[in-house]
Amino acid sequence: MEKEFNQQEYLENKIKYLGFGESEKIKNDLKKGIESGDDKFSIETSYPKEKLLKGNEAVFNLNFSKSEKGGVFLNSFNAVLRNEKKEDRSHSFKANGTITAKEAVNLLEGRAVKTELENKEGQKQEVFVRLNLKEKNEYGNYKTEYYHKNYGIDVDKIMEKSKLVFKDDAEKENIKHHLEKGNITNISFKDEKNQLQEGKAYLNVQYKMLNMYDKNLNRINTNKPLKDLEIDQEKEKSKVVQQSISRGI
Question: Rounded to whole angstroms, what are the CA distances from 36 to 11, 20, 64, 90, 204?
Fold first, then answer.
């Protein structure tokens, strides 16, 4: 005998899969929303501060709707990132699994994320997405930049050019995965004197390079672009303080 469909359990699993956790607050708020007479409802949840850059806060609103037949659907989520200057960045994402809560944070912090999107023929294709944080569209969302395969982002070659060093193939694949997901990642690399160093890096898809930092969070000149494309070092430092691969995906 087939198990009876449990709407609450199904939505709880979807919320968990998207990276919003499984707190009692979320479960209780979801139950209230399902049982309410409203056609639409939202659940607010915050992101753990220890997984954010120092001084940042992130809040999400999960948006649900109900069908005439009683079905309840998680359609989208709104993400708001507030920095230490109390400046807000907000964007709405579809809750279809292409972007998780963690990836939404990475995008709002200014980094690109690799995901899968459907083309016009309904085929899934891997693509890097990045938010243009200087420009919003008529819906209040940041304009999205897409970097497809033909743009030529080869993370393996980028890591090799940056002289990254790995203990084994498993570590190499793990670091590659974190870089592709927009995480600021712990790395080992050879410096200009061929000495082994520890540091952090994140993938800069626009210029097909790694933004790299030594253990003191100073920007490294390795693989640098033209000088007029360099980002102010102090601004770069503020992005990586207290950030590490332990943030996960």
Answer: 16, 22, 12, 28, 45
